[in-house]
Write a structure and sequence with these properties.
Elements lengths: L2 H42 L7 H11 L2 H4 L1 H11 L17 H13 L11 H4 L3 H12 L3 H7 L8 H7 L8 H12 L4 H7 L11 H16 L8 H14 L10 H21 L12 E8 L5 E10 L3 H11 L7 H5 L3 E8 L2 E9 L4 E6 L8 H13 L3 E2 L1
Parallel strand pairs: 5-6
Antiparallel strand pairs: 1-2, 2-3, 3-4, 4-5
Helix pairs in contact: 1-2, 2-4, 4-5, 9-10, 10-11, 13-14, 14-15
InterPro entries: PcfJ
Protein name: PcfJ domain-containing protein
Pfam families: PcfJ
Length: 396
């Protein structure tokens, strides 16, 4: 053998030996890093089930990739907090990617029967523990319809919708699949589903009453031929706020034009409220008044009536008064700033009933109007007189 050949072989052997040593060191460092990551994440969450630490450590032994990434590690921890159908010791990891390994683990731990792949996304696409428990129950063998009917899964799905749900592909996550079935069952298009599934209030499973409300909203949207998907985010936000303010609000009896007009009015009021925030109005010098009156009903019962008159001293409150009473009192803001007049609100049992305008220079009550500019009732007029007399004001 030539000298040059011996040198080449020796160099090759040295390089291979160096690579083997480096590989052993690298694997040891990686292993130590994995253990550190697990320890840190488990230390942050002390309230875990007794078996969860063991499960995460065993998963780290079998599929180290799942503990390197924080997102997949969170999914494993979520699985560790749910009662399992099988023990993790017999799990044989399948696949190489994060998602494939997580699906393989979830199927092994929970599935008593073959399950569609999308239902396992609940462990990494949401942080809803209740939803994870319901998915585990589905995997154990409980029907989706039984969970919906009992209220454990607070989504109003029919048997047909539940059957269609379990046939969907893996490209959707669990909540997207539910919304897809709802949209298609109501006669909606795929474009409507894409817009619907991007809305934050929709992509969270809510309490039964709100789920029923959003189902009615979806049905209403599917019937509106003029509805554009570009308007949908604004519409849903308006309906969310409207439902929060009035739990009795229903949509199905209203026309598209009326709802759209109400939405634009709400947006205009919101823009005005933001602009008015923090702006104060000058005080007139008259005194507010709060008093109670007792009266007997036809059946002889004594009822206490509470009356309160206070001055509106901010642009934001002036705007709120105009919106609540549906009149144009907000247009008086410049006159109030100049000191020409002052605006007062009469409340009866904590409810707005009358708006009062006082001309400051003449010490005269010039306007007394209720909702939609109605005239005051006798009791309301007497309350206004009582307050005006206490401040030495005259009435027209």
């Amino acid at each position: 053998m030539k000298h040059s050949e011996r040198v080449r072989l020796r160099e090759q052997a040295e390089r291979l030996d160096f690579e083997r040593k480096t590989l052993r060191i690298s694997s040891r460092v990686v292993r130590q890093c994995q253990e550190d990551v697990i320890a840190q994440n488990l230390a942050r969450k002390p309230k875990v089930f007794r078996h969860s630490n063991t499960l995460v450590c065993k998963v780290a032994d079998k599929a180290p990739k799942l503990v390197k990434d924080q997102h997949s590690l969170n999914a494993v921890e979520h699985m560790a907090r749910i009662a399992t159908y099988r023990d993790v010791d017999s799990w044989q990891p399948q696949g190489k990617g994060y998602r494939t390994l997580l699906v393989s683990l979830a199927e092994h731990l929970f599935a008593a029967y073959p399950m569609p792949e999308f239902i396992w996304s609940v462990f990494w696409a949401t942080a809803d523990r209740q939803m994870m428990k319901q998915v585990a129950r589905i995997a154990y063998g409980t029907s989706v319809f039984a969970l919906c009917e009992s209220g454990s899964l607070p989504v109003p799905l029919t048997r047909r919708q539940c059957h269609a749900l379990m046939q969907l592909p893996a490209s959707l996550n669990f909540i997207e699949a539910i919304r897809y079935v709802q949209v298609m069952s109501c006669g909606g298009s795929y474009a409507l589903f894409q817009a619907w599934s991007k809305l934050r209030p929709i992509m969270v499973i809510q309490e039964p009453a709100m789920e029923q409300f959003w189902q009615q909203v979806l049905l209403w949207c599917c019937k509106q031929t003029e509805l554009s998907v570009q308007v949908l985010p604004q519409l849903v936000e308006y309906l969310r706020v409207r439902k929060g303010a009035d739990r009795q609000f229903v949509l199905h009896k209203q026309s598209y034009k009326n709802v759209l007009y109400a939405m634009y009015e709400w947006q205009r009021h919101e823009a005005m409220r933001k602009k008015a925030s923090g702006q104060n109005l000058p005080e007139s010098g008259w005194l507010p008044l709060d008093w109670k009156e007792s009266m007997s009903t036809k059946r002889g019962r004594i009822v206490t009536q509470q009356w309160q008159v206070d001055e509106i001293l901010s642009i934001e409150r002036l705007l709120a008064e105009g919106i609540a009473m549906n009149h144009c009192v907000y247009g008086y803001r410049n006159a109030i700033k100049r000191g020409n007049c002052s605006i007062w609100s009469l409340r009866h049992n904590q409810q707005r009933v009358i708006t009062i305008e006082v001309n400051n220079a003449s010490r005269r009550v010039v306007q007394v109007k209720g909702k939609y500019n109605r005239e005051p009732s006798n009791a309301e007029r007497q309350a206004v007189v009582h307050w005006a007399v206490s401040n030495n004001l005259r009435l027209n």
